[in-house]
Amino acid sequence: MSKPPLPPEAVDLLRRANPCVMAT
Fold first, then answer.
1. What is the CA radius of gyration of the chain?
2. Kind and range of the H or E element at 9?
């Protein structure tokens, strides 16, 4: 939520690691 804008690669990794992370 209160995180700085991450690059598409980081967002993709976060989505794969945490499927519940759809805030971005």
1. 8
2. helix 8-17
